Amino acid sequence: MVLRSSGIAVMVLKVFFPSCCATAESGLLIGRWIPEQNSAVVLAVVHFPFIPGQVKQYLSEVQRVTQINMCVLGSWSNSKQEKEEVLDKFLEDLSTIFSHEPWIQLSKERDSKFWSCCIFQKYPSSPKEDEFILVYYDQRKVMLSQLHPTDNLTTSADHKGNDASKLGAVFDTVAKSKVLFMTDRYDDGPIKLTHWQSEGVEASIIVELMKQASVPVCMLLTFLLSLVSSVCKSRVLKFWPLSFIWSKLSTCEQLGHRMEHLQIISSNRKAQNQTQLMRKANIFVSLLIDMALGILLMSWLYRENRIGQLADTLIPVADHIAKELQDLLQWLMGVPAGLKMNRALDQVLGRFFLYHIHLWISYIHLMSPFIEMILWYVGLSACLGLTVALSILSDIIALLTFHIYCFYVYGARLYCLKIYGLSSLWRLFRGKKWNVLRQRVDSCSYDLDQLFIGTLLFTILLFLLPTTALYYLVFTLLRLLVVVVQGLIHLLVDLIDSLPLYSVILRLCRSYRLAGWWRMLPTMLLSSACCQSVSMYCLAGSS
């Protein structure tokens, strides 16, 4: 809104007024005066009654902490009743106590949308027509959006002097006045203020309790993490059996990731920028949700003896899978899909794999008395998080399908050996050989005996290839099915680990908190002061 009186010259005065103070009671306007832009940034309203000496002392303390020239800009009158002349005279007399040039007096009438703005100067240089540009801004969003001014902006001296649309000083003033916004109406101090947190600092009690409790918790967590890290880095785990198990188990890998996350959270190093702060917050929220889901899973498992039910179901399922594999091998040992297989090799491979299935069934039945106890202790690991429980489930699936993995490895190795032998013998027919030293194919002359033996071996391998390829194809499909199931589990684990839940929640609830790292630069100077006020209002009030 623009207010003006009659006169000759025009002096434009911009007043940035917080929208949260529009309903405040009458009092003093405190903030910062920017003489280069002829602007006043109102930060809060001091209510009646007050002692002028205490107000000056409070502003000096705030100025010492924030390094901002804080002062009393003028007076604010919100007449809920009919306007009294005594109040007007009192507000005008305040300009003699708080010596600020110029003295701004804002007033709002009862049930009225129009404001009155007046300016008082002790020593006016010339008769002027005073023009006021009152700019509303959302103090909450400007404060929490972290809209900082650019530091490395190099402009000319004329551009600095004539640019009246610099919002960097306004945003910087609000951002550095954090100390001023820490007092609310529940404080017992002599100064009562109205600002964006005057109704109560957001989650102040919870934040203070968490700060007090986080110190010993972080110390204990750091000690435990350092102890576990020293054990994990010991030379005992670097020997072959333990190092191989540590690298192959998904549980060990997930525990390593969680240890790194806990070290990041419990670190006493302050975040250097907004990216590191958001990363810590995302990891912390991810850990909380992961542990909450794990505790829910653990409570479900230990309710109504579901552990015993799972243990009783596991043995019949393993027997059913083994029986299906035996039927599949019996089908392969016959005439699968009408294909003519090499009967001798087919019988050897079939009996070899059937013997492995028999060993696996014997092993499962030998472990059956201990399966319920193993599942009981595995269920306790869910308190470490749902991702740890899912990793253990992936490892259990890998152990239960270990015979399928062995079948796949046997079939793959046998198939690769035959392909390698056929490729070598094919080069023998063409008078070529593989030069191992130079890693290339060179010409070579073979005698009659070498060509005869090579022909026999090539014929044998070629006719045995379909049988080996069929076994390799079947076990590859079975292995692929197991890998797909484990891949889905690992995908869910990675989703819980890497999903920025805190950022998503913040984007849905308080999107202005994600407006950091913005840099607003004026691209052109507008000739009309009203247009400038409209552009400033849009920038300051949006997120």
TrEMBL record:
CC per GO annotation: endoplasmic reticulum; membrane
Transmembrane helix found in the keyword field: yes
Superkingdom of the source species: Eukaryota
Segments traversing the membrane: 213-232, 283-302, 348-367, 374-401, 407-429, 450-474, 480-505
InterPro entries according to UniProt: PigQ/GPI1
Signal peptide (UniProt feature, chain positions): 1-22
Presence of the UniProt keyword Amino-acid biosynthesis in the record: no
An annotated GO BP: GPI anchor biosynthetic process
Keywords noted in UniProt: Membrane, Signal, Transmembrane, Transmembrane helix
A Pfam short name: Gpi1
PANTHER family recorded: PHOSPHATIDYLINOSITOL N-ACETYLGLUCOSAMINYLTRANSFERASE SUBUNIT Q, PHOSPHATIDYLINOSITOL N-ACETYLGLUCOSAMINYLTRANSFERASE SUBUNIT Q-RELATED
Protein name: Phosphatidylinositol glycan anchor biosynthesis class Q
